Each structure stands twice: as C-alpha cells, then as structure tokens.
Amino acid sequence: MKEAARVLELLAESGHTVAAAESLTGGLVAAELTGVPGASKSFRGSVTAYATALKQELLGVDATLLAERGAVDPEVALQMAAGARRRLGADWGVATTGVAGPDPQDGQPVGTVYVAVSGPVGAGKVAALRLNGGRAEIRRESVRSVLELLVDELSGNARAQDTEQNGGN
Predict the structure, then answer these.
(1) Which of 14, 18, 38, 164 would give a disulfide with 92, using CB separation of 3.0 to 4.6 Å?
(2) In what order do the strands lie in the sheet with 112-118?
(3) Could you write out the three-class secondary structure of 25-83?
(4) How does pLDDT run across 101-158, given as a tens digit for each residue?
(5) Whether the Cβ atoms of residue 55 and residue 87 lie closer than 8 Å to each other
C-alpha cells in the first residue's frame, strides 16, 4: 500500500514517530506499516483494542463516552488516537473504529467507520466513512483511509514548518 510507504517517508523526514490504536482493523494498520523496509525508524507500535473495555483500560477512552455512544463514534476514534500517542510515546497516533460486519454494532450499520489522527499540536482530525463491500474490503479501505489521513496531516505539518522557517514566504 503506497500510503504506508509515504507515511514512513514523511515521518523519517521530520524525525517523528507514529503509533496505532486499532479496533475493526485488528492489526492491519500495523501490518501495512511494518511491511515497509525501515519502518522501525518511525513506527513505535500498536494496540489492538478490539473489546470495548480495552479502549478505556489501555487507551484511556472516556468510560462515559463509551457507555453513552458505544465504540463506533468519532470522539472515541480521536481519543483512541491520542491514547496510542500517549501510551506508546509517539509524536503521532492513528486510530480505527467501526463496523466491518456482518452485523450492525452499537446501532451503527455495517460500513460505518471512523478513522482519526492525533498529532503533536492541535485537537486531531477524524474522518467519517460509509464503506460498502464485504468485511475484508471494509477493513482494507479503513487502513488505506487512516494512512491517507495521516499523510494529509504530515504534509500539512511539513508545509507549515517550511513556511515558518522561511519567514512566511
């Protein structure tokens, strides 16, 4: 997946690291990143918090939020990404949560996915996805989408640093 190589290239250029918090993708984000030679320079690790309770216990997702909205929620995704960053000591955190099927979960239909990025500055970014296809396709597209979101954030961050270093020109 070209997004994984691009993520690692951008992280290497900035000297930053990334960690992942995964639910529906079950380790596929980590697998994509570690499939790229040299990933160990920038990839810190991942937490596969498939069970809802682990999202709270391992990643620090707010228990009330989980109880009220369930695990398939944009704020849960953001808190998972921030938790991965914090717990694994990375500059950037990414997260995936959603419903891959075959059955709905927490009142959410199959294909409802939230991917999030949490960085060293700012509140982070979340994308809501409505995906079609079977379980494998939904999981694969979730991985691609979270890596693409991170590429966008890393590219924007690099542009902002460039502008700062060059006196705003």
Answers:
(1) 18
(2) 43-48, 18-22, 92-98, 112-118, 125-130
(3) CCCHHHHHHHCCCCHHHCEEEEEECCCHHHHHHHHCCCHHHHHHHCCCCHHHHHHHHHH
(4) 999 998 999 999 999 999 998 779 999 999 999 999 999 999 999 999 999 999 986 5
(5) no
Considering the segment(s) 2-165 as one domain, its CATH architecture is Alpha-Beta Complex (3.90)
DSSP reduced 3-state for 138: helix
The first and second tokens of residue 120, run together, are 């060293």
Tokens read off for 36: 């790229």
Report how far residue 44's alpha carbon sits from residue 128's, in angstroms, rounded to the nearest whole number.
25
Neighbour count for residue 3 (Cβ, 10 Å): 18
**What's this model's pTM, rounded to 2 decimal places?**
0.92
CA 86, 51, 97: angle at the middle one, nearest 5?
Answer: 65
Cβ atoms of residues 35 and 29 within 8 Å: no
The CA distance from 104 to 51, in Å, is: 15
